[in-house]
Design brief:
The protein is 17% helix and 20% strand. It has three helices and seven strands. It has a seven-stranded antiparallel beta sheet, with no helix packed on it.
């Protein structure tokens, strides 16, 4: 009985390419990852600074107020229509430029980030609350009384079953 030898990748190396010798007799050990585990949320709000929560186009974000102007992600926020500066008027933000259009809701209460669903998943809500020192809402402590629908594909299964029944 003859045994065939499996072809190895090193058998196909070019004579011009540098040869990489692989020791196939001894398995190589994987080096463990020595990086520290990353956090779900990094601290955003710093003490001694003025911060607020801005709800624009169903996107909720923390904004810093510098000299009465709204700054998001280190840059001054401007009107999405005319590029004018934004003006905080009570609990709303309007364009202070030519158009004067309503831009979104505003609150100096940083807990509004969770109230306005800035973080939608329970895991992220807990991480934000813990890191920033917020208080979670009552709904975050309630147990889930339903089985969440984990995949949109379930809808397609129901759709296909209905289509097959019609035929």
């Amino acid at each position: 009985m003859t045994r065939t030898v499996q072809t190895r990748l090193v058998d196909f190396e070019d004579a011009d390419s540098p040869s990489k010798k692989v020791n196939l007799s001894k398995p190589q050990r994987l080096v463990p990852d020595k990086r520290p585990p990353t956090k779900v949320w990094r601290k955003t709000i710093n003490d001694g600074e003025v911060w607020g929560v801005f709800d624009v186009d169903d996107t909720v974000l923390f904004v810093q107020i510098l000299d009465g102007r709204v700054h998001a992600h280190g840059r001054e926020a401007v009107c999405k229509y005319c590029g004018g500066i934004l003006d905080i008027r009570g609990s709303q933000i309007f364009c202070g430029g030519e158009c004067g259009v309503y831009q979104g809701n505003f609150s100096y209460d940083l807990n509004a980030y969770l109230k306005w669903d800035g973080a939608k998943s329970l895991t992220l809500r807990k991480a934000v609350a813990e890191e920033e020192g917020f208080s979670l809402e009552e709904r975050d402590y309630e147990p889930i009384h339903y089985t969440p629908q984990w995949s949109v594909l379930y809808e397609f299964e129901d759709f296909e079953a209905d289509e097959l029944e019609k035929e």
